């Protein structure tokens, strides 16, 4: 986002940045004070819970990951599954 923050979801030993558009959508919901935000990941609906700070595939509670809002400059695994070296 323009103030230098991004949204991340948890991987096995680090954090993945959400793709640019999705991060923008989550940020918009966050700034509006919304409790959750629905996103689309590879054709599946995921709900980002902005109070618990988790994302979960809709109707699949086992598919749950922590999420966070942090500076764009933090070390990360990559963006939406695309590794950066
Ligand atoms: N954006 C993109 N892909 C996602 C997202 C998302 N917000 N959420 C889940 N997936 P689950 P390591 C991740 C993918 O939670 O080695 C990473 O992007 C998820 O991809 O059970 O463990 C990597 O590509 C997973 O492939 O619904 O750090 C991959 O895991 C699939 O959806 C490995 O990362 C099921 O996730």
Q: How does this model look, in words?
A:
- This protein has 85 residues and is mainly beta.
- It has one domain (1-84): 2-Layer Sandwich (Signal recognition particle alu RNA binding heterodimer, srp9/1).
- 14% of the residues lie in helices and 51% in strands.
- It contains one helix and eight strands, in the order ββαββββββ.
- The protein has one helix at 20-31, and strands at 5-11, 14-17, 36-41, 44-49, 54-57, 60-71, 78-79, 82-83.
- The chain has an eight-stranded mixed sheet with strand order 3-4-5-6-1-2-7-8, covered by helices on one side.
- A hairpin with a 2-residue loop joins β1 and β2.
- The longest helix is centred in the first third of the chain and has 12 residues, at 20-31.
- The radius of gyration is 12 Å and the shape is globular.
- The relative contact order is 0.27.
- Bound molecules: ligand V3L.
- Ligand V3L binds at residues 9, 11-12, 16, 18, 41, 57, 63, 65, 77, 80-81.
- The site of ligand V3L has 12 residues, from β1 and β6.
> Could you spell the SSE succession in H and E letters?
EEHEEEEEE
Shape designation: globular
Do you know the CATH topology? Answer: Signal recognition particle alu RNA binding heterodimer, srp9/1
Q: How does CATH name the architecture?
A: 2-Layer Sandwich
The biggest beta sheet reads: 8 strands, mixed
Helix/sheet category: mainly beta
Query: How many distinct folded domains?
Result: 1
Average pLDDT across residues?
95
What is the number of beta strands?
A: 8
Radius of gyration: 12 Å
């Amino acid at each position: 986002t323009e103030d230098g923050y991004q949204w991340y979801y948890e991987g096995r030993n680090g954090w993945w940045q959400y793709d640019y558009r999705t991060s923008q959508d989550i940020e918009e919901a966050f700034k509006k004070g919304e409790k959750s935000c629905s996103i689309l990941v590879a054709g599946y609906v995921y709900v980002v819970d902005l109070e618990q700070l988790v994302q979960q595939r809709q109707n699949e509670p086992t598919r749950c990951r922590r999420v966070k809002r942090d500076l764009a400059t933090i070390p990360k695994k990559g963006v939406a599954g695309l590794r950066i070296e």
